[in-house]
Amino acid sequence: MRRPLPRSVISFLVLLGCLGAFGAMPAAKAQEQLAGKYRCVKIEFNHQSGTCQSPPLILSSDGSYQIWGERGTYQVMNGQWLVLSHSKRRGMGHIANPHEIIFEYRVDGRLCRVTFRQLFEAAPGVSLG
User: CATH number for the domain including 66?
Assistant: First the structure.
């Protein structure tokens, strides 16, 4: 008679299956598409909007990132989720469109939603005003 697998083993196998089923966007393509500086444009906490004072999210073309005092690497899953290697509390960011990333997470059971939009800088010698 076979014994059932422990939950930790089952959870690990499910995670591996999800990663295999969804896969990751090729690193070079994801880095080209998302690389840049994103500024916080909106924060909602417990369904109320507030002033966004988050530092910018910087995604480098080499696959590294920095924000909230964190530095690490990033990966795009299934073309729609941004996974930051060192972000434990905030989880994955949803890529709403190629220039907008939304993080949703809970703080003391209340929903927090932070929206970042990509900043575009003028080429050297070009004036936007």
Answer: 2.40.128.280
Residue 14 predicted with pLDDT over 80: no
Q: Could you give phi then psi for residue 67, rounded to 5 degrees?
A: -175, 155
Q: How far apart are CA 59 and CA 83, in angstroms?
A: 11
Contact between residue 76 and residue 34 where contact means Cβ atoms under 8 Å apart: yes
DSSP letter at 34 equals H
Q: Domain range holding 55?
A: 24-118
Q: Is residue 2 part of a domain?
A: no
The tens digit of pLDDT for each residue in 67-101 reads 888 899 999 988 899 999 887 667 789 999 889 99
At 13 the three-state DSSP class reads helix
Q: How far apart are CA 94 and CA 73, in angstroms?
A: 16
The CA-based angle 93-96-98, given to 5 degrees, is: 100
Does 14 map to a domain? no
φ, ψ of residue 80 in degrees (nearest 5):
-140, 0
Polymer length of the chain: 129
